[in-house]
Amino acid sequence: MLTDTEIRIKGILALSKELGEVQAEKFISLIQREPFDYTTWQRNLFLNNSVDEVSKEAMMNLKRETDELKQS
User: Fold this and answer.
1) Do residues 15 and 27 make contact, with C-beta atoms less than 8 angstroms apart?
2) Cβ distance 46 to 54 under 8 Å?
3) Strand, coil or helix: what is 15?
């Protein structure tokens, strides 16, 4: 299991890679300004997906992360 610090670092790196540094900082400032209910967000996240679809996506993400780790 990752530590809180490791999660923060990986999160910032992922945001920066996907959005670029400026947009990643903007995203973080938007998140910090708005009240965010993680529980409500999580409940609604997969409402329109079947269990099979969620499982398939999770397995694809795991494979991608595993492949990335093998390359580094």
Assistant:
1) yes
2) yes
3) helix
Hunting for tokens 């299991």 — which residue is that?
Answer: 1
Q: What would the two tokens of residue 39 be?
A: 């529980």
Hey, what are 17's tokens? Answer: 């890679």
Query: Could you list the pLDDT tens digit for every one of the 72 residues in the chain?
Result: 889 999 999 999 999 999 999 999 999 998 888 787 888 888 888 888 899 998 998 899 899 888 888 887
Pairs from 19-27 (Cβ < 8 Å, separation ≥ 24): none
Alpha carbon distance 72, 1 (integer Å): 20
Residue 64 carries which side chain, given as an amino acid letter? R
